[in-house]
Every structure is written in C-alpha cells, then in structure tokens.
C-alpha cells in the first residue's frame, strides 16, 4: 500500500457496496422471473424497474460525491468506471426482464436458466468483493472467478444461439429470444468489466 499523508473520502466504499447489494436484488428478481408464470412476470418487472431506479440513484450519488470531493480513495477515472459498470449490470438485467414481458414470451429456451445462474453467482461475488476495496485485500480470487464465470457465460450463450437457430422456432420468435439472451450475455460482460476495474484499482494501489 502506498503511504498517504492526506485523508481520503471513505463514503465511496459504502456507496459501492450498496450498489453491489442492489445488483444482488436484481439477480434474485431474474431468478424469480425464470420460474414465474407469464401472468406474474409483469409484477416482477415492476419490482425490477424499481431496483434499476435505485441503482441509478446510487450511481448518481457516487458521481455527486466524486464531483464534490477534493480527495478520493483512488483515481477519479476508476471511480467513474466502477460506478458506471455497476450501473450497466442493473440496466442489462432490467432490460432482459422487460423484454420477456414486452415480447410476451411464454417459455424461455433451455439454457437461459444457466445464464441467470451465472449472473446470480457473479452478483454474489461482486457484493462480497466491494467492501474489500477499503483494504484492497482478498480481491484476487474475486476477479479470477468472475472472469471464469464470464467465459462460462460465453459458452452458454453460444449454445443458446445454436439452439435458437436449429429450426425449432419461427423467425420472429428467434429474433425475440435472441435479443433476450444477448442482453443477458451483456450483463455477464458488465460483471467482467467491474472485475477488471477492481483489478486495475488494486494494481495501482499496491
């Protein structure tokens, strides 16, 4: 750790942790949507939208703190990147649920459950890691595991695309389902972006 003579604004740590906890809430709503009857999905979508708005509020709070703080715990650009990437995760999860409702999807294809399970695990790991930014300890296993999960998500996504294009679905249904599985893949990518940012921060602070 670099020796510092000046105090640092520490409320960022709590705000990042709160943002990550909200992502766990979003991942649980994704899991709930997966097992819900089509008629119940609109209500789940409303709760997901509320969670996404809470995520926006958390991101704006971080940006406001960043703009009003003379001293920050680590580089300003990394704070901005981390907050933005966390926000992206919630945006993609909310979009996926919203698309399921808007497209009136009766049954999601086999493999979407695996996509969502990967996202739920990545959400748990991210929420566990954020408090460790305060001490920059126990973070290496986090970003290694999230990168592994993202690779797993890539494989699941490719298999899903192959399944969608095997002739079982009509063209319109393929377009609808492909957009949903693509957005879930983007959520997995966003988790990796968060992990990569955390790794960058840890390297700079070492």
UniProtKB/TrEMBL annotation:
Listed name of the protein: DUF47 domain-containing protein
Similarity comment: family membership: Belongs to the UPF0111 family.
Alphabetical list of Gene3D superfamilies matching this protein: Phosphate transport system protein phou homolog 2, domain 2
Residues spanning the membrane: none
Signal peptide (UniProt feature, chain positions): none
Highest taxon in the source lineage: Bacteria
Taxonomic lineage from the root: Bacteria, Bacillati, Actinomycetota, Actinomycetes, Kitasatosporales
Organism: Streptomyces carminius
Pfam families: PhoU_div (PF01865)
